[in-house]
């Protein structure tokens, strides 16, 4: 049945889940949510494990065609429900006719909306992530447009959770690769900040800053690329390959951003400055373990307060929640 | 063989320094061997290396590295069977045949003769889903890429870019010289299948426009069966 209708799509909104790992040898990138942390938390708040709506820079305006629960995580785009501010990182029950909108980006770059009902989306290789290059997955393999209506299967979900957002303050951690030898001085990457340019999408992020000079050629025999790989062409300006990047690349790579820091890159927008830190394999493994621990330790508490109220001799159990 | 970590859940196995059938055989050997290994989530071959994604929870880099190093390249274990996929190509639809002919100083007929009916090795699939990196093109056919790339090259276009030849499985922008078109789908979205695989061979079979249209109709109806030869 009809779940919700898109009144305004936002700059670039697609459905993304964890992506399709295992098909890169067919030229199929993993795709999936750019900020996996926000996807995981949003889904937990609505009891789901499926794709969420990933919104870029501007949020979507959504009219609900039936009741369900939603949750908003990631970038703060000043969410409103029926023109009243609502809280992020919390289960929000919505009913038929409710309209979710976003006043404007306050921090971050990509916001996520998860839904308690099961979304009926196009699937490829066990994933409903949208990969627009081949018009596959998600809603008709493309970014949402005004008027799009998304079908859902009803799932009964009556919980009310809230959670505290995880904060990250470390620099972006990079594991130097074997091609680091192709560069005169890898330290340059770690001693300067790099600015995110306007050339930024789900395939990659071009940076501007102190050039990374090659000893000889910037070209290599084409070899596999993973999300997080930092390719450096002749210009010396690094580009970080992201989730929709081509699976094979031909430029020297200085190293790879560790996987949990990709979530933070997802929240960076043009003009933001990035500081990189060199880590060892052990430190990279420790970082991932720590991140998984932090996720596990999150307390999804009931966000309502319970009162016993007596009115005219009758006793009521009342739940009160902050909107 | 050289193994190094890429991030905390993937590593790169380097098996050679060049683009050659010998190095390719090594890559294919390890691809086949490691596909069976527990905890391996993805294997991506390229000309001279193999990338491996492993299960972060189950595997650790040093154990995996050591396990891989114990697999010795055994030529004898390689299947000698050669799979040749015959791709019908209508060279009449080659938008840049004139350009290639002029650059190579060969007649159009000669270009077609030297391009078709040879077996090209599929070194790997990448660039877009289903795009084969082919090896074995006649060096006399080398033609530089277009100075201004096209914003759209239609799916099925067969091209020459420098010393390389290939087929575009999808509409994409690109700078290769288009010398023909195949009515075959190299990437079937409905069945989630790429037609070509690493280690197979592609042979371009010239067809005329009428046959092209006939096969195109059959493909659209799901009735066409691609001819594959094994020897």
* Number of helical elements of chain A: 4
- Please report the distance between the alpha carbons of the first and last residues of chain B: 30 Å
Total number of strands of chain B = 16
- Assigned CATH architecture of the largest domain in chain B: Beta Barrel
Q: Could you please say which CATH topology of the largest domain in chain B applies here? A: Cyclophilin
Q: Biggest interface: chains and residue counts?
A: A-B, 36 and 43 residues
Low-confidence stretches of chain B: none
Average pLDDT reading of chain B = 92
What is the string of helix and strand elements of chain A? EEHEEEEEEEEEEEEHEEEEEEHEHEEE
Can you give the helix content of chain B as a percent range?
10-25%
The amount of helix of chain A comes to: 10-25%
What is the element string of chain B, with H for helices and E for strands? Answer: EEHEEHEHHEEEEEEEEEEHE
Q: How would a crystallographer describe the biggest sheet of chain A?
A: 7 strands, antiparallel
Task: Produce a short descriptive summary.
The complex is a heterodimer of chains A (323) and B (231). Chain A is mainly beta. Helix content of chain A is 12%, strand content 39%.
């Amino acid at each position: 049945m009809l779940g919700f209708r898109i009144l305004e799509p936002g700059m670039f909104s697609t459905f993304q889940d964890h992506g399709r790992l295992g098909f890169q040898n067919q030229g199929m990138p993993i795709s999936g949510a750019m900020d996996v942390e926000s996807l995981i938390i949003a889904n937990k708040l609505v009891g789901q494990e499926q794709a969420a709506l990933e919104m870029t820079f501007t949020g979507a305006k959504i009219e609900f065609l039936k009741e369900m629960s939603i949750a908003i995580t990631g970038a703060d785009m000043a969410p409103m429900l029926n023109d009243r501010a609502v809280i992020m990182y919390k289960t929000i029950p919505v009913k038929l006719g409710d309209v979710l909108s976003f006043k404007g980006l306050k921090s971050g770059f990509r916001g996520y909306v998860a839904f308690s009902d099961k979304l009926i989306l196009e699937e490829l290789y066990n994933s409903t992530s949208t990969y627009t290059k081949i018009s596959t997955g998600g809603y008709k393999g493309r970014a949402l447009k005004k008027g799009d209506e998304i079908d859902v299967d009803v799932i009964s979900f009556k919980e009310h959770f809230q959670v505290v957002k995880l904060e990250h303050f470390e620099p972006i951690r990079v594991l130097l690769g074997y091609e680091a030898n192709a560069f005169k001085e890898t330290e340059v990457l770690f001693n300067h900040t790099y600015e995110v340019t306007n050339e930024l999408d789900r395939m990659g992020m071009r940076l501007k800053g102190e050039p990374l000079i090659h000893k000889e050629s910037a070209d290599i025999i084409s070899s596999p690329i993973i999300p997080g790989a930092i390719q450096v062409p002749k210009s010396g300006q690094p580009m970080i390959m992201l989730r929709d990047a081509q699976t094979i690349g031909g430029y020297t790579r200085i190293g790879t951003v560790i996987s949990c820091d990709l979530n933070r890159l997802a929240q960076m927008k043009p003009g933001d400055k990035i500081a990189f830190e060199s880590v060892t394999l052990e430190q990279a493994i420790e970082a991932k373990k720590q991140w998984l621990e932090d996720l596990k330790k999150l307390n999804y508490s009931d966000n309502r307060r319970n009162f016993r109220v007596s009115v005219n001799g009758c006793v009521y159990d009342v739940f009160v929640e902050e909107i | 063989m050289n193994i190094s970590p890429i991030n905390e859940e993937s590593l790169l196995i380097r098996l050679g320094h060049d683009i050659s059938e010998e190095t390719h055989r090594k890559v294919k050997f390890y691809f086949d061997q490691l596909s069976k290994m527990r905890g391996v989530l993805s294997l991506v071959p390229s000309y001279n290396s193999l990338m491996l994604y492993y299960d972060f929870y189950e595997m650790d880099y040093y154990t995996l590295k050591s396990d891989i190093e114990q697999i010795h390249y055994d030529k004898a274990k390689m299947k000698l069977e050669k799979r040749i996929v015959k791709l019908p190509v209508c060279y009449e639809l080659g938008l840049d045949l004139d350009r290639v002919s002029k650059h190579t100083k060969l007649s159009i007929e000669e270009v077609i003769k030297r391009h078709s009916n040879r077996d090209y090795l599929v070194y790997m699939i990448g660039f877009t889903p289903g795009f084969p990196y082919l090896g074995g093109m006649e060096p006399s056919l080398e033609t530089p890429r277009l100075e201004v790339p096209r914003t759209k090259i239609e799916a099925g276009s067969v091209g020459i870019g420098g010393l390389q030849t290939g087929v575009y499985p999808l509409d994409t922008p690109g700078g290769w010289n288009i010398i023909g078109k195949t009515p075959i789908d190299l990437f079937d979205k409905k069945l989630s299948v790429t037609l070509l695989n690493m280690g197979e061979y592609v042979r371009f079979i010239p067809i005329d426009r009428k046959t092209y249209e006939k096969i195109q109709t059959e493909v659209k109806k799901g009735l066409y069966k691609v001819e594959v030869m094994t020897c």
